[in-house]
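Page 37, continued from 36.
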């Protein structure tokens, strides 16, 4: 639970002289949603954090960092049936998210077992996994933890339409680049602390 974000949100709201209901009206959410943010039972997604920053006139990066403080070392997984691609992707992810625990999997079932034992913040999934489907794996991972960010990775742009029918945060084409990852991190449904040189 992230009490630091909750306390900051409440302070910013009170400084503006807004009730939870009034803030909810400005953000187009129910006041009970605001209440959950302020009692640490729920965090707003990336789009809502952008709205909050605009509403309060504060730096959005500060709010993102506060929202992420509850998980300083997030678990990130990547699933691809090519060991060469998997190795390259692990290197790129490690560069962009230096504080994360990054684990690669060739077999979807191994990724599922890992997700059952560890809270996964981000899952990068190939869509074609031999006889398995990354789209099906996405569904399973979200059943395990609905707050897992899913980003699909494929060599085929044609799959993008199928990917967007899921609850994924994004879609990237192979070969994976650091810039692609940085762009996707800005669009996550549930942002997390990524670390880096500016800490």
């Amino acid at each position: 639970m992230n009490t630091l974000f909750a306390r900051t949100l409440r302070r910013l709201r009170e400084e503006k002289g807004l009730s939870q209901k009034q803030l909810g009206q400005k953000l187009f959410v129910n006041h009970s949603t605001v209440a959950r943010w302020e009692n640490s039972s729920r965090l707003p997604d990336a789009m809502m954090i952008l709205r909050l920053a605009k509403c309060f006139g504060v730096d959005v990066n500060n709010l993102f960092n506060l929202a992420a403080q509850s998980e300083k070392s997030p678990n990130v997984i990547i699933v691809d049936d090519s060991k060469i691609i998997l190795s390259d992707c692990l290197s790129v992810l490690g560069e962009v998210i230096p504080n994360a625990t990054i684990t690669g999997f060739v077999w979807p079932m191994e990724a599922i077992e890992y997700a059952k034992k560890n809270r996964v913040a981000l899952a990068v999934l190939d869509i074609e996994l031999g006889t398995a489907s990354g789209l099906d794996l996405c569904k399973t991972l979200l059943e395990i933890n609905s707050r897992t960010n899913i980003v699909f990775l494929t060599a085929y742009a044609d799959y993008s339409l199928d990917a967007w029918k899921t609850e994924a945060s994004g879609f990237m084409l192979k070969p994976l680049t650091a810039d692609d990852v940085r762009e996707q991190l800005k669009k996550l449904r549930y942002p997390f602390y990524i670390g880096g040189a500016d800490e």
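The two ends are 22 Å apart (CA to CA). Flag for discussion at group meeting. Residues 160 and 175 are 15 Å apart (CA to CA).
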